[in-house]
Amino acid sequence: MLDTATLERRLTNLEQVVFDLQHKFDSKPVSDNWLDRLIGSISDDAAFLEALEYGRAFRQSDKPIDEIGQ
Question: Keywords for this entry (predicted)?
Answer without folding.
Answer: Transferase
